[in-house]
Amino acid sequence: MIPSIGYATNHSFLGLKPYKFERPDARPNEVTIEVLYCGVCHSDIHQVKNEWGNTVYPCVPGHEVVGRVTAVGDSVTTHQIGDLVGVGCMIDSCRECEPCRSGDENYCEGPNSWLATYNGPMVPAKKAADEQNHYGRENTFGGYSNVVVVPEDFVLKIPASLDPKAAAPLLCAGVTTYSPMKHWGVKAGSKVGIVGFGGLGHIAAKIAVAMGATVVLFTTTEEKQDEAIRLGATAVMEKDLKEEVDPTNPLTRTFDFILSTVPEKHNLNPYLPLLKRDATMAICGDLGPLEPINNMQTASHRNSVAGSLIGSIAETQEVLDFCAEHNVAPDIQMIAIADINDAYKEVEKGDVRFRYVIDMSTLKDEEA
Questions:
Q1: In CATH, which of 2.60.120.650, 3.90.180.10, 3.40.630.100, 3.90.980.10 is domain 2-172+331-367?
Q2: What is d(CA 264, CA 361) in angstroms, rounded to the nearest whole number?
Q3: Which residue has the higher pLDDT, 225 or 36?
Q4: Distances (CA, A) of 325 to 12, 148, 223, 271
Q5: Where in the sequence is the signal peptide annotated (predicted)?
Q6: Cα–Cα 20 to 30 A to 45, which of 284, 340, 358, 361?
Q7: What are the pLDDT digits (tens) for 301-337?
Q8: Are the C-beta atoms of residues 140 and 154 closer than 8 Å to each other?
Q9: Is-contact 134 287, C-beta < 8 A?
């Protein structure tokens, strides 16, 4: 076993604090990684507070992990000691279902779905005697820790030209926005709307601009309009939109694709009149029940409202390579692990520009 330390919580209303635990030794197909940096995702807050009703305590968050390989199993061929690598939202899947065999591990249909980097299987094991947890464990501990152990084919390579600190949010925020834009065919000349201008929205805008798209950011915050221009986009205030078709609005029926990155229930109806015929609005921020959709709007122009969940391992490597090639990186603020509880409050208030990344070397202060 590997002695480990991280930051954990034991209840939804408690903050994170130092937590000592043990990780299993690496299996032959696994690599051991010293964690250097870990991004702070709004999903971490949802999970810590059990806002999705599935949290397994104790909870050690963190699924935007950048680190250095310190040991490799006997059968590992793709990574070597000293490599700079990343770990995203998943560390395993059933590998047997059709999505897994097709390279869509994030849509794993196995008995427990995919194995999350923290909080265990995406679908917790049933307690009935005839059910067996595919992974043999009900909890996993994430990257708010000094070390992680991960199967080699769920470990990503960090391109040398990427700042490893800024690479961390790409492992979740980056692929979560890249995957739907790729799936729905965003390309040079596309007109793309991004709803929400936070951690997900700002990197979505940067990626879409790098793809050659014309980008419009929808925001509730007037102060962010200058930020949008800096990113190569224009900004529109959400309050100026109407739920019905507005022929005087120059944005009506002009969008090829709209992506909602808002991490909570949000009224989508004001955006539907903006979609071209056959265009899609995809939701990647909120995983809960949606506000009711006006189907007259969608049916009248054969529009779709769709969901998208993170991205596959291949897509995660793609977005890392794409961002390295196009010099794209999220705007980050570095914090010490001891400041994580205050950082959560700032994320919830929307006062971050635009993603927090934890310098995990500060965890050594807790080990003393």
A1: 3.90.180.10
A2: 32
A3: 36
A4: 41, 28, 30, 32
A5: none
A6: 361
A7: 999 999 999 999 999 999 999 999 999 999 999 999 9
A8: no
A9: no
